[in-house]
Amino acid sequence: MNEDVVVTGYSYHTVYASEGSGIENTDPHSIDYSAQIPKRSDLRSQGLSQRLACFAAGQALEMAGIKAKNEILADADVMVSTHFGERDEQIDSRIFEAYHGDSVDYKTLISELSNLRPSLFLAQLQNLFAANISMVFGVTGMSVTFLGEIQAGVSAVEEARNRIVSGRSSVALVGGIFNGARPDMQSYFNPPSGTDFESTCGDSSLDLGFGCGFLVLERASFAKERKAKEKAILGEVVHKNSEENLVALKRMGGIDYVLTDVASSNKKIFDLTNGVLNENGPKYFGNLAQSTGSLMEASFPFSLCIASDVISGRLKFPITQSIDSPAGGKIPQQICVTAVGSEPTIASCVIERGQQNV
User: Fold this and answer.
1) Could you tell me the domains of the chain?
2) Given CA atoms 143, 149, 152, 153 in this order, what sign does their dihedral have?
């Protein structure tokens, strides 16, 4: 089957958007999660990141007009990219306290270590990011959680799109969540000096964000049949090494806008991007890592949500570099969304304005 894959719904949230980016901040502690997660038992089984992801997923389903439509959701897929499962920070603190000083409180330590079992705090399981969404909203097709930093988000989108293109699915809910505010994430990506651990993105510290993004993807004919409004058309996800891909951007006729999430510590990729930008390449470049902090597993789905919002005319393109001034707030017709990992590889996807965009 050779048919377009369209975006019919999307939702995104970020906690650390910088002023001037045009992206609205979300306070995850002040959200009324019951608006999307009505059962208290579901809320109790989820940590903060899972609640935010589930909330955004529900909003995306609402925009697409398929929330609570069991006849559609029964065959819809769920693809979620994330990092580690949630942590119970109170238990972690008590474990560290048991090691306080030169003595070890073995009684407390053994007691608290037993509380780390996932059967007592299910949110520790990474696969529950997708499973919780599936259970809360009745999305009972294939349910997969992808792990592995930025590439996980690329893989989630790519798999969801490929299943639709191949005819194995008609609808997919795909997204990612990353909470860089967690102490364990800070230690993992920005280890203290003098330790044996190294940051995954080079020698410099990595500015981490906290956010998520979810999209509803559909086969174009299926969306047309149910009279859904196309927010955007999602192109193929293409993998190349960074130099080949960025140079190729110069040859993309008519694509003046590039949106990415490049960690500031990844100087080689950043310099390559600057070089392409200044050699008759894309006119406008938006680096979301500078606006929201790097969202790792969530970065690619989040960037696609931002691109969909820009193409829909709801958000101005978040320019961080440009070779000329934007012309009268013109709405882009195409945006090239790229994802750059810690290794010299990059994935790109062109998102276009939908025919029935509103």
Assistant:
1) 5-89+118-232 (3.40.47.10), 238-353 (3.40.47.10)
2) positive
